[in-house]
Design goal:
Shape of chain A: elongated
Number of helices of chain B: 5
Strand order of the largest sheet of chain A: 1-2
Distance between the termini of chain B: 31 Å
Structural class of chain B: mainly beta
Distance between the termini of chain A: 52 Å
Radius of gyration of chain B: 23 Å
Number of strands of chain B: 26
Strand content of chain B: 35-45%
Largest sheet of chain B: 6 strands, mixed
Number of helices of chain A: 2
Helix content of chain A: 55-70%
Largest sheet of chain A: 2 strands, antiparallel
Number of strands of chain A: 2
Mean pLDDT of chain B: 89
Strand content of chain A: under 5%
Radius of gyration of chain A: 22 Å
Structural class of chain A: mainly alpha
Oligomer: heterodimer
Order of helices and strands of chain A: HHEE
């Protein structure tokens, strides 16, 4: 009886834990990819970044929007909020 | 108490059980009615009263805001890109300016900033200047001047490098200063000097910028976060602040996680602090430890909906009153944006808390006309209604 309860508990825990762990590692993987992309953008600043910033057309993905940003920002560049989805 | 007395009169046992459900049913309807008719929100006691003035703009997308210059009220519709004037009793005085109208080619309206001689319209980083009669006077673009070489700034960031900063667009609140400059909220998102991964950010990063209106040059950055941020490692979604400028040019600063209000003189020397903790604030903020969370919009959204934070501040120097709103922290299963997070307002007189009261979800005092404080704003997308609030406080 005790063995059956133990197996049942392990089964339930496994049922809950496995998909959660999978999704976490997947999410972290995604984050890492996005972060790297963002760092690359900052590292290899496009030649006309400063000109774009001066003209107010350099925009970055931030807080569900696409407001103007600074060349030095780690954020992904965008033209409209749709580019950030 | 009244309900208990009624139950006693209505009997006991099974009858009481049935009556309980009837009352529950009636109360449920009562609550629903209140929620759908938000303009009926009213605080009316001997000391304080809030009324809603509904307006009927010529065009309205329900995406906009109200502003006042101290004599009249303006409704800015952000999607239609136009600005309409209203009297204090809600009568339209016509559209005063709209985007792509005239040689100035206004691109949009993010913010309306009254000045003694007229108005400034900010759209993104562009400032458009107008006279009181809405004649276009000129425009400029924010320029965060580089005081050091770009490479130096990238490799060895410091809090006083103006060139790293940008306009803080969340809850923007740009103000005209008696000195003739514009005061704006600023933020920095340098790859290694930011709210997500840098402790130096919380000690050194400036929160305000002084702008030359005619040239757009950000000539000075000032103010840092208070020591209360030392209790946490990284709170990137609650690192924001708000400010008000008193009649004598003093700055009143309130930070999202700090119950204190910091008063600085015009030279940014700390004069005094005062404040009080809000009611029932959910302040168990989750701390972050990596830059990755910056790229996931839901964390930002949750911070606005679920947690408590101090929000807007308004100062009436003549009456020695300070109004500060705060959100208490909402429920995960309720709403999809900041406005589902309950809002309350504290009122301090001579720096002592005098009242703490629930206010409508978007309530933000924007100015004063006569004896009434004007607050932005009521928006009901379903019923296509909008209006501003009139607050009187004795």
């Amino acid at each position: 009886m005790k063995k059956k309860v133990f197996i049942l508990l392990v089964g339930i825990l496994g049922f809950i834990a496995v998909p959660t762990l999978n999704s976490s590692s997947q999410t972290l993987k995604d984050y890492a990819a996005v972060a790297k992309l963002s760092y690359d953008i900052v590292k290899d600043i496009d030649a006309d970044c400063k000109e774009k910033q001066k003209a107010g057309v350099l925009k970055v993905c931030k807080n569900d929007g696409c407001p103007p940003g600074n060349c030095i920002s780690f954020r992904k560049r965008c033209l409209t909020p749709d580019d950030c989805k | 108490m009244i309900v208990n007395d009624l139950f006693k009169k209505l009997g006991s046992g099974r009858a009481q059980f049935t009556n309980t459900w009837i009352f529950f049913f009636l109360f449920s309807f009562g609550c629903k009615e209140n929620k759908s008719n938000e303009e009926s929100f009213a605080v009316d006691n001997q000391q304080m009263k809030i009324d809603t003035v509904l307006v009927k703009p010529l065009n309205s997308s329900q995406v906009g805001f109200f502003q006042t210059d101290g004599s009249t009220v303006f409704y800015v519709d952000k999607l239609f890109g136009q600005l309409e004037e209203f009297s204090l009793d809600g009568e339209s005085r016509g559209i005063k300016v709209r985007e792509m109208d005239g040689p100035e080619q206004l691109q949009g309206i993010s913010e309306l900033i009254p000045t003694p001689g007229g108005f400034i319209i900010r759209h993104d980083w562009m400032l458009y200047r107008y006279s009181k009669q809405w004649e276009f006077l000129g425009k400029s673009m924010f320029e965060f001047q580089h005081t050091v070489d770009y490479q130096e700034m990238l490799e060895r960031p410091k809090g006083d490098y103006i060139g790293m900063y940008e306009l803080q667009t969340y809850n923007s609140n740009s103000r005209y200063l008696p000195s003739g400059d514009l005061l704006i909220k600023v933020d920095v998102e340098h790859p290694s000097f930011n709210a997500f991964i840098s402790r130096d950010y919380y000690k050194e990063a400036r929160v305000l910028g002084k702008v030359d209106i005619k040239t757009g040059l950000v000539k000075e950055i000032m103010g840092t976060r208070p020591a209360s941020y030392e209790k946490y490692r990284f709170l990137p979604f609650h690192s924001m602040m708000d400010f008000a400028v008193g009649k004598e040019g003093d700055f009143y600063l309130t930070y999202e996680i700090d119950s204190l209000i910091y008063v600085y003189d015009p030279s940014m020397r700390l004069k005094q602090t005062f404040g009080a903790e809000g009611v029932g604030m959910k302040r168990n903020y989750p701390e972050t430890s990596s830059l990755e969370v910056a790229f996931e919009g839901r964390y930002w959204n949750e911070s606005r909906r679920l947690y408590a934070y101090y929000k807007d501040i308004y100062v009436d120097t003549d009456k020695s009153l300070v109004f500060r709103t705060y959100r208490q922290g909402g429920r995960a299963d309720n709403g999809y944006d900041e406005y589902s997070n309950p809002l309350r307002m504290q009122i301090f007189r001579n720096q002592v808390l005098e009242m703490d009261v629930a206010v409508p979800p978007r309530f933000r005092i924007i100015g004063k006309i006569g004896t009434s404080y004007i607050a932005d704003g009521y928006f009901n997308e379903v019923e296509e209604k909008q209006g501003f609030y009139l607050l009187t406080y004795n």
